[in-house]
C-alpha cells in the first residue's frame, strides 16, 4: 500500500556518529509495506520524514539493504525520496 500521491524511492542514508558527516546512501528496492514492517510502523500511522534506525530495526534493515550496519560508528536513517519524472 502506497500512501503517497507520487511515486517514491525508499532510501537508507548513514552519517558518521562523531562528525555527523554524510557517508552514504542506498535505494532500498522495496515498497512501503516492507518499510513499515521493518520499522514497526502501523498502516495509517504517518511515515513522513527520516526514521532513525534503532537497534531492534537493525536486522530487518540489514535484510532489506543487504548491508551489515555498523551502528557503533554510524547513524542510519530510512526515508522516502520522491521520484521525479
Concise structural overview:
With 85 residues, the protein is α+β, with helices and mostly antiparallel strands.
What does this structure look like?
It is a single chain. With 85 residues, this protein is an alpha+beta fold. It has a single domain (8-82), classed as Cloacin immunity protein (Chitinase A, domain 3). The chain has 2 helices and 4 strands; from the N terminus they run ββαβαβ. It has helices at 32-39, 58-65; strands spanning 8-16, 22-28, 50-52, 74-82. The protein has a 4-stranded antiparallel sheet with strand order 2-1-4-3, covered by helices on one side. Helix 1 (32-39) runs antiparallel to helix 2. The protein starts with 7 loop residues before the first strand and ends with a strand.
Strand order of the largest sheet: 2-1-4-3
Any idea what the CATH superfamily is called? Answer: Cloacin immunity protein
Radius of gyration: 13 Å
- H-E order: EEHEHE
Average pLDDT, rounded to a whole number, is: 91
At CATH's second level, what is the architecture? Roll
The helix/strand class is alpha+beta
Write the CATH fold name: Chitinase A, domain 3
Layout of helices and strands:
Elements: E1 8-16, E2 22-28, H1 32-39, E3 50-52, H2 58-65, E4 74-82
Antiparallel strand pairs: 1-2, 1-4, 3-4
Features:
alpha+beta; four-stranded antiparallel sheet; globular; Chitinase A, domain 3; 85 residues; single chain
Amino acid at each position: 500500500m502506497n500512501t503517497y500521491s507520487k511515486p517514491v524511492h525508499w532510501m537508507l542514508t548513514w552519517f558518521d556518529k562523531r562528525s555527523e558527516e554524510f557517508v552514504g546512501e542506498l535505494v532500498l528496492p522495496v515498497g512501503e509495506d516492507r518499510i513499515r514492517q521493518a520499522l514497526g510502523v502501523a498502516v495509517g500511522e504517518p511515515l513522513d520524514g527520516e526514521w532513525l534506525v534503532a537497534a531492534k530495526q537493525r536486522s530487518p534493515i540489514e535484510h532489506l539493504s543487504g548491508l551489515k550496519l555498523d551502528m557503533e560508528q554510524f547513524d542510519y536513517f530510512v526515508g522516502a525520496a520522491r521520484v521525479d519524472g
